[in-house]
Queue: 4 jobs
Job 1
Amino acid sequence: METKVSDSSGSGKIHLTRTLLRMAEEQKRRRGAVEMGPTALAVAANVRRIRDDVRGWSTYELAGRLTKVGRPIAPSAVSKIERGERQVTVDELAALAIVLGVSPSALMLPFTDGPDSPVAVTGAGDVPALAAWEWADGRTPLKFDPSRHPEDQWMEYTLYGRPAWLRPLRPGGEQYSAEQMKAYREEGKVQGSFNWDEKGEPVWKYPPARSTDG
């Protein structure tokens, strides 16, 4: 750091001021450079996938639609989001989901081919895709504390996180009753399920992961 302050003409003080301003800008830049976690990277990939592959929109069209709903994001910023160079705020996530016509969870989770595919979730690590989607859609806790009774944790999850008129009838510790699982599979064409191991981690249950060989 340069600290020239003895110049009687005042140029030394000006130089010091400019140096301090540069340091402040550098500190601001460093504070803003938050490391992108797996969920932020999933948002980046999903925004690009839905904008381009599904909707067929340019970044300019998406930016224009965001402006219309009161959450403007410049086309250049949309490109930075899709490249993983810019974090999405919570308000921007909601606006993007509205404009793209999907749920927030559709932006937050990786888009996989099968329910048994491992997906990375910030704070949880790799979990089965079905477990991640059920959690993100408000249907089940993602993890359980093995030192506590599962039903207590299930009740807390539904009591604290869901309005009374949305609380499921399924018992704690079980994802669905047999009838509900059958109906869910028929409606969503989901094959298999997941359960929690002795550590409270969600693991794929049935059927086993499919082989890609022959």
Job 2
Amino acid sequence: MPTPHPSRPASVPRSGPLLALGCAALLALGAAVAPQAAAQPATPTLPRAAAAADYYAAAEGKSGTALKDALHDIIKDQTSVSYAAVWDALGDTDEDPADPTHVIELYTGTSIAKSRSGGNPGDWNREHVWAKSHGDFGTATGPGTDLHHLRPEDVAVNGARGNKDFDDGGGAVSGAPGNYTDSDSFEPRDAVKGDVARMILYMAVRYEGEDGFPDLEPNDKVSNGSAPAIGKLSVLKEWSEQDPPDSFEEHRNDVIYTSYQHNRNPFVDHPEWVESIW
């Protein structure tokens, strides 16, 4: 729906002493107020570059397993979010930049009202990009509620993805142009292929068998079932390279870091680390 234009004030007649005095008073008041309004500080921007500079200090100069271990030690220090709180959090992390009352669905790319969260057809719900059955962690606080891999998605499209691994190919997904699926895999639209890859690889670094949760690892196959694994790693690496982080993904990382979990997805800040580790 088009945004209505602000209402314009009615024109003021040029005659009449009382009206003239009123206009003069309003002009004087405006002149007095304007400098005060202009002097108010602007809203500070989220500190992506500043945070990343010190945040990853312990990982500098490392590669391979040493880099993965260092990043794990950095990002495991996080604040947990309850599954109920995920609804409101996604309203912030995935807010439509063009409409603060909407969120952007991951696979469809559709802008949908935040108020339409739920489980009915046409609603959006909470998609676990690392399918919660892969490791059987469910919605437990921890991997089941980690905002770095939870995204808004249309109920039906979320169901079409199910707990499938990620790979290229398949038939078109109804209601989600550019997405494809078959019996054992799901391919997201091009604009978020890298997002999906970096979310999966974040989970593999963050959850290493500590905290009572399984050791999550990517592998190069599909049909992983309930094993704490998701594939295909070779395809995810290609996706991360083909679709580098954009401003939406970077902003999302900042919001999670600043307002919720206080940890970051290192592959959004340093996509080159994907190849360095895997």
Job 3
Amino acid sequence: MNIYEKIFDRLTELHMSQIELSRRTGIATSTISDWRKKKINPQADKLVAICKALDMSLVDLLCDGHEKEQKVVQTDYMLDERHIVEVFRMSDNEMKRRLSRYFELVEICNQINENNVSKKNKRNVSVIQDIDGNNIVVINDILFKGKRSINWKDVKEYLKNYVGDFYTIASTGDIVYIGSDLPNEYSGSKYTHSIKGMNAKAKANAAQGIPELIEIAVGKHFRENNEEKHWRNAKFGWYRYDSRFALPVYDEVGEIERYNVFHASLIVRHSEDKKLYLYDILDIKKETSTPIEP
């Protein structure tokens, strides 16, 4: 049985929705749906989070039932180094290969997760769907606060963590890269300096959900580049996508009262290297009719 099949069998067993799995793992619902739709397995760096969310071990996920001995998957035994060595010694070649791969994946996932914790600043982000089936990126923490104004230098430093990454827009298959120009433009554009109050706070904190905002983007619109200063970095024009995100609103005692939903436009440039790069996020606007209850 394929890994993606085991995941959906486990979801059925737990009566868990894809939305809940997304909330627990931070993986976009569109990505989870693609596993079944396209018959593909998750990337290795997502396996640890999936196992934790589904209360499974990597052995459960990677090995078929008839290939596992019960003692291999017992947590107490797995903590005993001598027992691990003994189990490995007594296994056949196929089981040894799978066990070796298991421990390789554990190490890979641990390294990736450690890097992600540092690089992504422990993002607390998930993707849900509204009653119409439209995706919303839920950002559960308010990192950037300010009684009078946002410290955009902090936002700029945060955005540097994404430079070099790339993400796929589920609705179009477009791959969008994060270039070195995004931190400066996002935090220092004319639009950024023109917004105040709630919209400024919304844009600042939307930085936490950039990967998911790209993944759920829809409504691709093109326009040619007419500005000489962008003759290289937007040689093949500009694209605008629509995306949505939600931020928590707290009551007087610090409890989440509701989530406000915002619309945003992702501005993407088509560079001379023929790649798409996120340039800025504009048109931040609260959707007054669609608050989310916690």
Job 4
Amino acid sequence: MNKTIDFGAPSEFGMHHFYVEIPVAPRDAIYIYEDFGFDGDEFRRETVECRLVLARELWTKIRDDARRDFNARLKNKRQSTGSWITGKIKLDRFLGRELCVLGWAAEHASPEECSVICEKWLALRPEERWWLYSKTASEAGLDNQSKRGWRKALYCALSDGANIKLEPKKKPKMNEKKLNQEETVSLFDFIDKGDM
């Protein structure tokens, strides 16, 4: 079994993982990065992408649910467990993907909506979270792409839907005859009056 650190991240240098940067200042934003490592090639330059910048207030609403879920699963695999402390905290690449899904859904939310988002995120199986990550990352996976496609869809899917305002960009043209038509057909109009 390979040795791991923090939230199941590989301890070997240059391995694919995620990490969360938690600044010491209590109001500073949280950064989540994906570090692709060297993929077995020591001479290749390491690639790191910032996946999310999350307001500290929203982070404090989601971090405990993520920690409990991740640590319970890591304990089942007899791997190291982690905690959210200031500095750089590494995560297994699959747990990092799941954390991005939670963070992407929360980035559009109010602090009050985060509890509903966490409940719905916890109800998802890990495989479902990975699928959501792959769909979102392929279209809008960078920190500056928060208002695009699947990033917004994650908020709509995992929130309670109360604050979602989607207005049609183009109003449908309605026929005035249909709008003014008062005659409606009921079930009894289909019954032949002679049968009674």
